[in-house]
Amino acid sequence: MIDVRNLCKTYRVPLKDPGLAGSLRSLWNRRTRDVHAVADVSFSIQQGERVGFLGPNGAGKTTTLKMLSGLLHPTAGQVSVLGHRPQDRSPDLLRRITLVMGQKQQLLWDLPPRETFELNRAMYDLDRAQFRRTLDELVDLLRIGELIDKPARNLSLGERMKCELCAALLHRPQVLFLDEPTIGLDVEMQAEVRRFVADVNERLGATVILTSHYMQDIAALTPRLLVIDRGRLRYDGPRDALASRIAPERRVTVRGEVPALRELGFREEHGRMVATVPTSRVNALLSEVLAAVPAADLGVEEIPLDEVMARYFRGDEGEPGQAAS
Amino acid sequence: MSAGARAGGWLARHLRATPTLLRVGFASMVAYRAEMVVWILTASLPLVMLALWNAAAADGPVSGFGQAEFARYFTATLVVRQLTGAWVVWELNHQVRTGALSPQLLRPVHPLAQNLAETAAAVPFRLVVLAPILALLLAWRPDIAWLPSPTQALLGLLSVVLAFLLSWLVQAIFGMLAFWLEQSLGLFSLWFAAYAVLGGYFLPVALLPGPVREAAAWLPFQATLATPVEVLLGLRDDPVHAVLVQLLWVVLALGTCAGMWRRGLVRYGAVGA
């Protein structure tokens, strides 16, 4: 349903020396530099998949997402979404996709969200009865019944984002492009948005493609990862496989501060003792802990995804490119 | 699907959406009512020009325009200017430069169609603001009032609609320059200066020096203001011809607009989607 072949996006950026002299020089001697935001990226995504785009700032993930949704024209390569070239912006495609941008809004600022919803009903040419059913369903799922008649400018950031999600889904799109949907939201609201996105994926069978700086979003929502760095695709595969390749350890935790465990390699961390060991040593370590502290409140955790990715981009486990598949 | 069927579907979808676009556009105007009143009043320069030319004609007519003719001319100019007011150049310039255009591009209705509907939705609001000003002018000079013939009224109305479309299209063209340039608003200021002089905003076109008046007849400025004013007041010997010239400019501007939009979207993003 989404097929990307050798996708490239190159920006031509003007260069200017600082100061008045630089400004004057740029009047007759305009210099530019090509920035390869996306370089030769290929992948496919099937209907109903949830895929996370990961990469450092400026890696090219948002640029890729914008090309997939038709906002940007590729410099080279082919993109097909639901059988369409996104940059053609065919109405048939626009009625089947949506893009939610955490830093851009479609809500009419001085009017209640209900007016934006009504505007979208007209723009997407939705049947009124179907529109009302979908709106009721989304209002219920997002718990925004009390918000939709207040001017958007009077809503909090989190409340606005929930209304943005509602506006973006009224036409029941088959593909959801989510660009930093939880940015700036508090922890509780982030969890609520995640729950909602997972729900939509299950109820509508919608494909979800997500970029986020919050690893919790990725960890909770997307079993498949596309890792992009400096415009190039570095990894395409299951999230768990990447995690076990980059961080093949487990964190053994013991609640409370137990100094005796320091001898076993534990250290204090936020009111608990933590030891990071190879997976093969977990059982032995658990036995040693119970021998030392019989009533220990034990836990075993995977390495958090943000740490996995930090190691990956640092190249701790070899060149990031080695993990590409 | 054939190109004709696609275009028909496009038009039908946009027409179905139009009532809601107009209603929401009007709701936005009402939400911004204080700002809109100020904005509308900034386009009241014809009142200033009326005062100036009224003084200039105190000792006798200027090129055939006496005080009553100037009063009628600038009152009609004020009305036409209000009915043809647009703001798409600022809106589009902002949207392209900041990426605020993106959410609109994702919807299956053309972003410019949405703006056109909002602009049209502002017309009733503008008339409400205009009404007390017109009442004061009439109280000051009752001879401002005139009754156009049915032909004048019909052609005048058509001419105002064409001037509305042309003003909006010209602004959209300058707004779209933001896809390529950082100073598209500066260029629009140049256009506005020429429009003020050659389009009949500062002075009736008949008062321009001969060669300038002849040159201005080949330019689009009059079609956005002076033509509807003169057709409504019965000052044109050739009103049908004048309206046809307007139509020609609208078609040319529409073609330019469509071409620039297609090419501009390819550039979009280089300036921050």
Brief summary of the model shown:
Chain A has 325 residues and is of the alpha/beta class.
Describe this structure in words.
- The complex is a heterodimer of chains A (325) and B (273).
- Chain A has 325 residues and is an alpha/beta fold.
- Chain A has helices at 19-28, 61-68, 91-94, 113-123, 128-142, 157-169, 187-204, 215-221, 239-246, 282-292, 305-314, and strands at residues 2-15, 31-45, 50-54, 76-81, 97-101, 175-179, 207-211, 224-229, 232-238, 249-255, 267-269, 272-278, 298-302.
- In chain A, the strands form three sheets. Chain A has a six-stranded mixed sheet with strand order 5-6-7-3-8-9, sandwiched between helices. Chain A has a four-stranded antiparallel sheet with strand order 11-12-10-13, with helices on one face. Chain A has a three-stranded antiparallel sheet with strand order 2-1-4.
- Chain B is mainly α.
- Chain B has one domain (3-270).
- Chain B is built from 13 helices and no strands.
- Chain B has helices at 3-31, 33-42, 45-56, 67-83, 88-98, 102-105, 111-140, 150-176, 184-198, 210-216, 221-224, 226-233, 239-267.
- In chain B, helix 12 (226-233) packs antiparallel against helix 13.
- The model of chain B has no long low-confidence stretch (mean pLDDT 89).
- Chain A binds chain B through residues 11-12, 63, 66, 69-73, 87, 89, 91, 94-95, 97-99, 101, 104-106, 108, 110-111, 115, 118-125, 151, and chain B through 9-10, 13, 16-17, 19-21, 24, 27-28, 31-32, 99-100, 102-109, 114, 265-266, 268-270, 273.
